Amino acid sequence: MYPASFDYQKADSVDQAIAALAANPDLKLIAGGHSLLPAMKLRLAQPPALLDIWGIQEMKGIQRDGDWFVVGAMTTHAEVLRSDLPLFPEVAGWVGDPMVRNRGTIGGSLAHADPSADYPAAALALGVQFVIRGPDGERTVDADDMFVGMFESAVRSGELLTHIRIPATIQASAYEKFRHPASHYAVVGLAVARHADGTVRAAYTGAAERAHRLPALEAAVNGSQAIPTGLVDAGDLLGDRFASAEYRAHLVDVLAARAIERLG
Amino acid sequence: MNVTLTVNGKSYTRDVEPRTLLVHFLREELLLTGTHVGCDTSQCGACTVHVNGDAVKSCTLLAVQASGMEVTTIEGIGTVADLHALQTGFWEEHGLQCGFCTPGMIMSSAELLRHTPNPTEDQIRHHLEGNLCRCTGYHNIVRAVQHAAGAMQGAGQAADD
């Protein structure tokens, strides 16, 4: 299958990418291309022009900055899998398959905000920060404000997600997933993390229009209460031909119990 | 748009549309038809090749994205006279029936054996989760990879001696 025709250019630096986006509002960013290209082949997406940001070296790799890891948005899932980051290596192991992980990037996945992607749950549970550059400079967005809607993140037109800041002080974490056997996407994915101050944050993905925190689970665990069932209301979830909203709500309960048990 | 690729050690330059997928570049521009198009939706792994040493699905990569990079296809890992250990393994263990998935299976397994020379059965099955086979039921594919791992380790030991 061939995608529809498009113009193509590469950026070698973040500045170059921002300038190119300012010059042409029709430009669509392509990183590893493992969400965008399949959509383009099916003609679900027909961008008139692509800007390839794969080669931007300043957006690759993982650095330590005090209590934070700073992860370049063009770091591949395979590199994340082999890293010392909290939780993300475990989550990366659930993404696609080895070939997909060699091309897909952490920044591409998070900016794409696929409602069934794995990383958003981990990002919310860990409380990561997103470093976003635009024509007016750099801003930092908290995980709680990053995922706006279905395939909609806080990254605006003309902007570029350059780095993800992940706390290096996480005491324990776990990701539990019920995956679709063919697509490997999350039917439900559930992440939990115990932070430096001892409090636990939790989030789920795959079950609604975007990833969400799980306040009922956090309140129970942080209040040393028994974990209730019915953590989420099926009325707030989405169902499809693979799993009803009611079944997804049940999976949230099951996976939450498993994840919390692993936290110890 | 000009694309220059080093494929199996040889440099090629072709003028192609940006929308040309790497797999079509290999098959239709270079006539390297050992790399197959199976599902064409990034699922089945029949189109797996190595780009700068990493196994990737060439149906989900534009030729222009790979420009300047080194590509290895199934044609580049062995010859009829001197088969790669994985090619011998698939032959000896009957690791294929129709053979459509085999080039991708071999290119994916080659990456596994590079970083895990002596994989367990679980590691082989886990690594090949992105390669679909509709014939074998996978058991003989796992044996083929184990056969190759053994042969490559034996060859390594012989070289060390």
UniProtKB/TrEMBL annotation, chain A:
Keyword Metal-binding belongs to the record: no
Domain FAD-binding PCMH-type: 1-171
Keywords, ordered alphabetically: FAD, Flavoprotein, Oxidoreductase
Protein name per Swiss-Prot or TrEMBL: Carbon monoxide dehydrogenase
GO molecular function annotations of the record: FAD binding; oxidoreductase activity
SMART domains per record: CO_deh_flav_C (SM01092)
Coiled-coil regions listed: none
This protein's record includes keyword Iron-sulfur: no
Source taxon at top rank: Bacteria
Automatic annotation (TrEMBL), chain B:
Chain ranges of the 2Fe-2S ferredoxin-type domain: 1-77
Keyword rRNA-binding: no
Keywords, sorted A to Z: 2Fe-2S, Iron, Iron-sulfur, Metal-binding, Oxidoreductase
Pfam families given in the database record: Fer2, Fer2_2
Keyword Lipid metabolism in record: no
SUPFAM superfamilies: 2Fe-2S ferredoxin-like, CO dehydrogenase ISP C-domain like
Record-level Gene Ontology MF annotations: 2 iron, 2 sulfur cluster binding; metal ion binding; oxidoreductase activity
InterPro entries listed in its UniProt record: 2Fe-2S-bd (IPR002888), 2Fe-2S-bd_dom_sf (IPR036884), 2Fe-2S_ferredoxin-like_sf (IPR036010), 2Fe-2S_ferredoxin-type (IPR001041), Beta-grasp_dom_sf (IPR012675), Diverse_Oxidoreductases (IPR051452)
Gene3D superfamilies reported in the protein's UniProt record: 3.10.20.30, [2Fe-2S]-binding domain
Full protein name: Carbon monoxide dehydrogenase
